[in-house]
Amino acid sequence: MSSSRSECCWIAALALCCSVATAAEIHSSVRADARANGSVDAIIVFADQSRPPLPLAAAENYHERRRALVDALRSRAERAQRDVRAWLDAHGIAHRDFWIANLVQARIPAALLDELGARGDIVRIDPNPLIALHLPSAPAAPTLTASIAWGVTKIEAPQVWAAGFTGQGVVIGGEDTGYQWNHPALKTHYRGWNGTSADHNYNWHDAIHDATGNPCNNDAPAPCDDNGHGTHTAGTFAGDDGGSNQIGVAPGARWIGCRNMDQGAGTPARYIECMQWLLAPTDLAGNNANPDLAPDVISNSWSCPAAEGCTLGGELEAAVDNLVAADIFYVAAAQNYGTQGCATIFDPPAIYDASFVVGATDSSDALANFSSLGPVSGSALIRPDLVAPGEAIYSSVPSNAYGTKSGTSMATPHVAGAAALLMSAFPALKGKPREVGQILRANAVSGVSDSVVQSCGGTPITTWPNYLAGYGRLDVWNAYRDIIFIDGLDN
């Protein structure tokens, strides 16, 4: 009997003695955009999106685990992407290569789209559309002078400060519309400021490379905010002007940032680029990545609609999963679709199990009408995890001013700041995102009300936890006092 390759294939698909490469799936919107415009901004997705196995035991130092994970992800991407990168280079196509999720971004000429899709080493070509930031309709209030912002007081952060912990020794990372780093409430808390001069290497990255008419331009060499949203969120997690504007939950923490939106419009690739940079910050040239300089907490006040590309194949989820696998506490806004009713947490990253998801309340502990509600389709988890102040939140805005904004965007940095306070008081919690989440949920305050929706997912708002307010409203002082009684966590 002949042992030719054709006979081997005929006999045994069963024994897998041969394999046949299949063409990549090309998303319909990619084809449509390519036909209409002559080229298309696309994401080239490789088959292996799983997290590489690591040789390190769970007891190893989290910095060592993080380094090993980054090395493994980079090695996987180098192997998987090598030939496609060479093909792109040979055709003169510029590209951005990612390792936190195994993919490449490039603008593909329409004439070459099918040739690329016919390759056997990729599985999909997905769109990379612009996605506008969705905020509730709430005009900013006039600039006022405040003392401690009401949300900071509501979650009892000042009591933790009085115990001696303001976030010192903890780094919070933000990815947003950018930041006015030298705002009076932010400058002294920015990791790139040493008291006399600024060094933005490893402390700032701009993922906006091809915008037109942006006030910050492209590839900004210093933190810049083209919208005001990012500066506001940073003020809530770490802002304090040293005077009458005590707006931040963890004013002793240091912060770093990445711009992932062009005046409020992001793309999947921009979001992933910022996540990759936060896992292993680089210098301003994008070189010399150093995972030891990653933040302990990441605050995410943005969402990426599924209809525009962010759940296709889970490449964004892979990036979030790898950040949390690298022992970073990843906080995400629940989104602002609550007026549509239950099951309105439907955009990444809040739909991912690895995220810690935050809804919004007002000063009376009533659920904000815009705050998105659970359950999350396909997830067995209670979402949101909890709620935090998000209605009429007073914080920093460009230029050197203060104002109020509303949204789950404003609730999220309260939780990021609270996590920083706990890590500051109990350093053993750094590198333990699961434990931090458990503690915050266990010590949330019940009693949040909603005058419109009384039940979601079959659970009424009077039963805790529930799909409207999760485990309750954030209270960091409760969490601090509870940790004191947990063995093995020394301050």
Provide a quick synopsis of the model.
This protein folds into 2 domains: 21-128, 2-Layer Sandwich (Alpha-Beta Plaits), CATH 3.30.70; 150-483, Rossmann fold. It has 12 helices and 18 strands.
Question: What features would you describe in this structure?
Answer:
- The chain is of the alpha/beta class.
- It folds into 2 domains: 21-128, Alpha-Beta Plaits (2-Layer Sandwich), CATH 3.30.70; 150-483, Peptidase S8/S53 domain (Rossmann fold, 3-Layer(aba) Sandwich).
- The chain is built from 12 helices and 18 strands.
- The protein has a 7-stranded parallel β-sheet, with helices on both faces. Strands 1-5-2-4-3 form a 5-stranded mixed β-sheet, with helices on both faces.
- Helix 8 runs parallel beside helix 9 (315-325).
- 52% of the residues are buried.
Write the layout of secondary structure elements.
Layout: H1 5-11, E1 25-26, H2 28-37, E2 39-45, H3 62-90, E3 95-98, E4 103-109, H4 113-117, E5 124-127, E6 131-132, H5 150-154, H6 157-162, E7 171-176, E8 204-206, H7 229-238, E9 254-259, E10 265-266, H8 268-279, E11 297-300, H9 315-325, E12 329-333, E13 356-361, E14 386-389, E15 393-397, E16 401-405, H10 408-425, H11 433-442, E17 455-456, E18 459-460, H12 476-483
Parallel strand pairs: 1-5, 7-9, 7-11, 8-9, 11-12, 12-13, 13-14
Antiparallel strand pairs: 2-4, 2-5, 3-4, 6-10, 15-16, 17-18
Helix pairs in contact: 7-10, 8-9
Question: Could you list some keywords that capture this structure?
Answer:
alpha/beta; 2 domains; five-stranded mixed sheet; single chain; 491 residues; Alpha-Beta Plaits; Rossmann fold
